[in-house]
Write a structure and sequence with these properties.
140 residues, mainly beta, five-stranded antiparallel sheet, 2 helices, 10 strands, 10% helix
Amino acid sequence: MGLSIRNQMAGTVVSVTPGDVMAVVKVRLTGGQDITAAITAEAVRDLGIADGTAVQALMKSTEVALATGPVPGVSIRNQIPGTITGITAGSAMAGVKVDVEGGATLTAAVTHDAVADLGLAVGSSVVALIKSTEVSLATA
């Protein structure tokens, strides 16, 4: 099955904190970074997600925000550092490609104003910010 979601990062589940309706799943990405996904408890059961499960973490590019450095004092659990490798400007939005450790690439869809205001350019260091509720998990 093909997906329109551009951000697909391989990893292994390192912990599952179950809840009545939702569960918090921590995944160690291939590059060594940790990412947190908040998914339904039903999905955890249906997909057989447990410690050691190989998964793909999926994030829509519209759900990836960029900052010029780590952001303290925020509830966003996923802050992944990287380097901008490309910016594609459209008429209203820009697609920003970010290489992260381990060879993975993230794409963020941001406004032209954000690119200008943050001074984003190829080679710039950034931190990708992704809410845990915006991370989906897929199993093979």
